Amino acid sequence: MNFLPRLPRVELSLDGEPLDADIALASSILSRFRGLMLTARPEMGRGLLLVPCSSIHMLGMCYPLEAVYLSKDFRVLKISRGLPPWMGISGCLGARAVLEWLPGNAAHFGVRVGQHLHWRRRASQ
Questions:
Q1: Are 78 and 45 in contact (CB under 8 A)?
Q2: 10-residue mean pLDDT series, the chain (125 residues)
Q3: 10 Å Cβ neighbour count for 44?
Q4: Of 2, 46, 65, 122, which is the most buried if we count CB atoms within 10 A?
Q5: For residue 33, which phi and psi values (nearest 5 degrees)?
Q6: Are 65 and 90 in contact (CB under 8 A)?
Q7: CA Rg value for the chain
Q8: Of 64, 76, 56, nearest to 117 (Cα)?
Q9: CA gap 102, 42 in Å, rounded
Q10: CA–CA separation, 70 and 52 (whole Å)
Q11: Which domains does the chain have, with CATH numbers?
Q12: If DSSP states are collapsed to H, E and C, what string results for the chain?
């Protein structure tokens, strides 16, 4: 199954080390609003980066999420783990981007608050 095939991809690096992740980029108003609503549960290592963004909602979600909030200089400000489907919102003051993925991905990749999680648009699109 192709994960969000119409969206461009980004490359992630954590404190300078590349991450082996499939991350789609939502940068338009419509793609940010839709996010992962009503999508099939992605595999571990797949996610959606919303830019610009400082908060997310869980309306229309069929599975829990983990949200990684990034500052404009790519610093991890906050990690919200296990956000339940259909319930509530999550946000972070000062965030400029939010990475949505399945709970456990931050631990799997070693992402912690204070680290730099750089992203750039993948050249080969």
A1: no
A2: 83 96 95 89 95 94 96 97 91 97 97 96 75
A3: 13
A4: 65
A5: -60, -45
A6: no
A7: 13
A8: 76
A9: 7
A10: 10
A11: 9-121 (2.60.120.1140)
A12: CCCCCCCCEEEEEECCEECCCEEEEECCHHHHHHCCCCCCCCCCCEEEEECCCCEEECCCCCCCEEEEEECCCCEEEEEEEEECCCCCEEECCCCCEEEEECCCHHHHHCCCCCCEEEEEECCCC
Token pair in block for residue 72? 């404009």
Round to whole Å and give the CA distance between 119 and 64: 23
**Token code pair at residue 36:** 């992962």
pTM above 0.90, yes or no: yes
Residues linked to residue 120 through DSSP beta bridges, in sequence order:
11
